Amino acid sequence: MAAGGRRARLRAELRAEVLAATRLIVVDHGVETLTLTEVARKVGVTPAALYHHFDRGLPDIVSQAADDIVDDLVGELTDAAGRFAADNFAMRMIAPSRVLRSWAIGRRREFCFLFGTPAAAAGDEYAAVATRWVLRLAGVWGPVFVELWAARGYPVTSSHELDPRLLRQMHEYATASGLALPPEAVLVMLNCWRALYGQVTLEAFGHFSPLLGDQEPMFEMLMRDIVSGLGLAEQYEAPARG
């Protein structure tokens, strides 16, 4: 193997080790313990050496590690949605929502890493990184809303009743995410996401505990409410029981 090829392989191996170490630190100890020094210690190099592979240091490492986690998560969500027929819009929304809830509960520290505010680790990069994650997630649920809108539509608030600033932002979101939806339809989708994210976050961060020990019934009520509001109540399927 040529010298250039060996160097490229070693760089790829070190990158993989660094990102794996970053994820391990987050899982084992939480994002608040994530520092360039700790990452370097885990992989057996100096902090300065990491700059040869990650130009911006820790923010760059955080960004790439987060992308890897999102890749895994989006794969699980997409697989869940793909188990249902194309015209079963409700379950193509609900199935990945259930997976997101289970993932958030089972992997709380990674959930916090993505959906909390690891600003100290990510620095000024966090806003751009978080925006990228949001758009990736839009790629899971967004196409279902687009197909539903084209096939049968769903109730929306008239654009004449909405604040022009809100309409402008909905249009910008649709453009950025590549969703072929009018602004008022995008607003419905984002309101559904806000409800889902709020429910999952409250549970993952333990804000309902210990008052509500079993939050699945509340989650399923939300799922019913969301799909009913979209005119899909008849497609709701209760979770399978083992």
Descriptive report:
By secondary structure, this protein is an all-alpha fold. It is built from 11 helices and no strands. Helix 4 packs across helix 5. Helix content is 70%, strand content 0%. It has helices at 3-29, 36-43, 47-50, 58-81, 89-106, 108-115, 119-122, 126-151, 164-177, 183-204, 216-229. The termini are far apart. The protein is globular. The model has no long low-confidence stretch (mean pLDDT 90).
Summary?
The protein is an all-alpha fold and 242 residues long.
Number of helices: 11
Question: What is the overall silhouette?
Answer: globular
- Helical coverage, percent range: 55-70%
**pLDDT averaged over residues:** 90
Helix vs. strand class: mainly alpha
Total number of beta strands: 0
% residues in beta strands: under 5%
Oligomer: single chain
Radius of gyration: 21 Å
Main sheet record: none
Low-confidence stretches: none
Task: Give the H and E element order.
Answer: HHHHHHHHHHH
Separation, N- and C-terminal Cα atoms: 53 Å
Key structural traits:
242 residues, mainly alpha
Q: What layout of secondary structure does this protein have?
A:
Blueprint: H1 3-29, H2 36-43, H3 47-50, H4 58-81, H5 89-106, H6 108-115, H7 119-122, H8 126-151, H9 164-177, H10 183-204, H11 216-229
Helix pairs in contact: 1-2, 1-4, 1-6, 4-5, 4-8, 5-6, 5-8, 5-10, 9-10, 10-11
